[in-house]
Design a protein that fits this description.
There is one protein chain. The chain has 202 residues and is an alpha+beta fold. It contains 3 helices and 9 strands, in the order αββββαββαβββ. A 4-stranded mixed sheet has the order 1-6-5-2, with no helix packed on it. A 3-stranded antiparallel sheet has the order 7-8-9, sandwiched between helices. A two-stranded antiparallel ribbon has the order 3-4. A hairpin with a 2-residue loop joins β8 (182-190) and β9. It is globular, with a radius of gyration of 20 Å.
Length: 202
Amino acid sequence: QFMDAMVREMGNMEGKGQDDDKRVWDLVPKADMKPGSKEIPSGWVLVKKSLDTGDGHTTYDKHKGRVTAGGHRQQHGRDYDETWSPVVAFPVLRMLIAFAVTHGFDITQIDFDAAYLNALLPPDLDIYMKQPRGFERVGPNGEPMTCKLRRALYGLKQSGRLWYKTLRAYMESEGYHCLDMDQCVFIRHNGDKWVIVVAYVD
């Protein structure tokens, strides 16, 4: 079952069944790596979750496999620069919940699945990662290959920051503005209609 989860994860990483632009990396010959670059390791995180179906009696096991990058091997100045990303302040969150309740607003919570993968790495940044264990491939002439990352894979030091910047750019393009007192709060106001989005990046 974990193998099935790993195969699904690799399909997601390679953009199979999706827009080709969704792929997380390009497989390139190691000989083509940018001079001075070094591969960082990759790893698997395997989790078995028991989930309640909601009827109060039945649970089922869900097996998940996630490819992660070994960010502990990244080198500052070569692989990353700034890494911080804002997190909503809990006093602000409590204030907004009180505001919503007072004014009769609906409150909804959503979770982005594999959120970081929505963020692209800067085009001038080359990060190479070893192929995930068990799924190594060689080139057409038998040459060793490496993963040249395109997206903010989990484990990279800058992934949280890149995801926040991607989210903020999208929200602003949709007419939201960022609250001055907290950069994780986005507001869109039109007449008597309000939409307040609070983002938490972990």
